[in-house]
Specification:
Two copies of one chain form a homodimer.
Chain A: H1 8-26, E1 31-32, H2 34-41, H3 45-53, E2 59-60, E3 64-66, H4 67-78, E4 84-89, H5 93-101, E5 109-116, E6 125-126, E7 129-133, H6 137-144, E8 148-151, H7 155-165, E9 172-175, H8 181-184, E10 189-192, H9 195-207
Parallel strand pairs in A: 4-5, 4-8, 5-7, 8-9, 9-10
Antiparallel strand pairs in A: 1-3, 2-3, 6-7
The structure holds a DNA duplex (24 and 24 nucleotides).
DNA sequence: TAGATTGTTAATCGATTAACAATC
DNA sequence: TAGATTGTTAATCGATTAACAATC
């Protein structure tokens, strides 16, 4: 929209750039041109130059891009180095796997709390945190002021939770539930992880190959 | 591209339509107009009519869309009713959660096999299936001819696995690893579930709100 | 029939690609 | 310097939105 605004098409591609650059860096490659990178990533050189240039002139004419530097820059853009406090809602099987197997620091988050309504779960320790009852949400948020919520609850619970979380200052949701946060809370930032959506699209694609 | 080709922008929206229609159906709503649905989903009525019309005239002038019917049609388009054989690669914590908590039938898949290289896991039962050693992959695929693979392995293992799976007739990948299948196997159908990508984008969005 | 709402064409907007002058 | 490759403008392509005639 306004100048300086970065389109979501560009943002969506950033983590992939970050991943490819990370690999190249690990392999000890020092520089790469937009056309070489384009070939690896199956994009056009033009698109890469356009994308990167939205954020500044990271390249150098006649040379290309310094991988180490570009990797750092993209990380910075994505906020990898920030430290956003996040809480986990729902500590069922999925919540536990997510909480214990992700290194949130690498994405710029710190998990500061975990909540569930199940008395069999409340009090247990997950990812080094004692699980609180969801009743404590208001109190906890007023004290710790988390800005992100990871929703690993059924969609029935998600609706009510979002109604509470938004006024409590939660700005962003990492949403594993099927509740459509964006349509009810258009100002919230939302990243959905809808397993079944992905599977349905895969089903479509498999059905419609070579058409 | 060619006429009859459905753009991926449209495909991406289909599961969301399906979800909203499912809710409306459950609520007992019988019909809906494109403008009512647009308001609920925060889309434009135009877009909804365009999207649906790619697949046929499901609506009726002066009336709108029959919810039950449209729901069924979109399900059919997505291949919800097909029965694609799928295998799970990697039965670690994530693989187990995915295998045991998804109702694959609802997305048109049947899980017919599970594989791991860890001898502590091989032989165990997951989602009703005995876990095989990955060494048996070739034999198994020749016998059962699965068309989809669910990759819940580290990216180091994913590369080699894809090299084996593609020649074995796997057409589609549901990829939880960070290995970039598409850039090495451009003809494979791929749906990525990259947890950390979503988190990085969320980080970006939180950092750049109200800009 | 009159009113409502689709299907569909045309207009607009945005994203991608191509081209090339700037410059390392 | 000459060659390479960026940054950036212009051209193209595709997706979204608007408009309206068709029709239930």
């Amino acid at each position: 929209m306004k100048n300086g605004h970065i389109s979501s098409s560009v943002i969506k591609r950033l983590p992939r750039y970050y991943r490819f650059l990370g690999h190249l860096k690990k392999q000890g490659v020092l520089r790469i041109s937009s056309s070489e990178l384009a070939e690896k990533m199956r994009l056009t050189a033009s698109q890469i130059r356009q994308d990167l240039n939205r954020f500044g002139g990271f390249g150098q004419q006649g040379y290309g891009y310094n991988i180490e530097l570009l990797y750092e820059q993209i990380g910075e853009i994505l906020g990898i180095n920030s430290d956003v406090k996040a809480i986990m809602l729902g500590v069922g099987k999925l919540g536990v796997v997510v909480a214990e197997n992700m290194d949130f620091k690498k994405q710029g988050f710190t998990l500061v709390g975990a909540f569930d309504i199940d008395q069999n779960v409340v009090g247990k320790t997950v990812a080094g945190l004692k699980v609180n009852h969801t009743d404590c949400l208001e109190e906890f948020c007023k004290e710790h002021k988390p800005k992100a919520a990871f929703l690993c609850v059924p969609s029935s619970a998600a609706e009510e939770l979002c109604e509470r979380l938004v006024p409590l200052g939660i700005k962003g949701f990492w949403n594993f539930s099927h509740y459509d946060i964006k349509s009810e809370h258009p100002n919230a930032e939302v990243e959905n992880v809808h397993f079944s959506d992905a599977l349905m699209r895969l089903s479509y694609k498999i059905k419609n190959t070579d058409k």
